[in-house]
Amino acid sequence: MIARHGRELSVLAAYLILLGILGLFAPRFFEAKPLADFAVRNASVLVAAVGMTLVILSRQIDISVGSQASVCAVVAGLLAKAGLPMPLVGLGTLMAGAGMGAINGAFVAGLGLPSIVVTLATLVIARESLRYLLEGAFVRGLPSSFQWFGAGQEAGRWWVVGIAFAVFVGFAWGMRYLRAGRAVYATGSDPEAARLAGIRPRRVVFSTFVTMGALTGLYALLNVVQFPAVDPKTGTGLEMEVIAAVVVGGTAVSGGRGSLLGTLLGVLLLGTINPALVYLRISAEWVKAIQGAIILLAVASDGLTRRRD
Fold this sequence. Notes:
By secondary structure, this protein is an all-alpha fold. The chain has a domain at 32-235. The protein contains twelve helices and no strands. The protein has helices at 6-25, 32-57, 65-81, 86-110, 115-134, 153-177, 179-189, 191-196, 201-224, 238-248, 260-279, 286-308.
């Protein structure tokens, strides 16, 4: 068991060490309000990281999620402003994300193009189109039913955390017990062997991109309901956050190996670094550098593991 879950255990150990340092030098981090803020802030990131785990497990990558989140956030704001009830706002936002994921999937799975190239192109297209259409303007004039789902801040915060937790548990169960989950692992491990076993790798890859898009839409919704207006820059830098969380959690960039438990630990570890720097009075500008270093170390570790195997 230790050998099988070695990466997850190492991330857990690093996280416990970080918590120990905070306990010694910044005990205020463990007060009720900072912990609640931490949970709400990282809940939406966990949702997007679940989708990215599926994409990377299938031996692909999606760097367009930040721009997708921006588009989905604006879609959510416009639908709410048009007077639609929140269930339809949520459905429309998820459909917008799934549609953009389907475009990525069609080019990658259908035409066999490299996912890094396709998603780089769609990243730029979505970001620049949104910039041209809105010119940086916020979506304002939202109904009271939009912010915190109309439940008020205290209850709404736990709605956000509860939805993210339900998504995580559902996908973790599905990846372990459903044929669709096993097909993702098989496709990432060896697409040709998966095909011979009756799995359609292209369909699996397409489905992972659509799922990634839908979960990006949910990320955007859980994020924007926390504010009275929608920022079109919502999701900026999201791709770095979720890719770092996934790879540091043990998902192999070569595909076929990893777990959502590791992704959860990666989100917790990286999500704690930013407030930790603030509490320890270290410049928060180091966050992106630390994320980049973590991705590099995780990829190097994966390469060494494959070489030993």
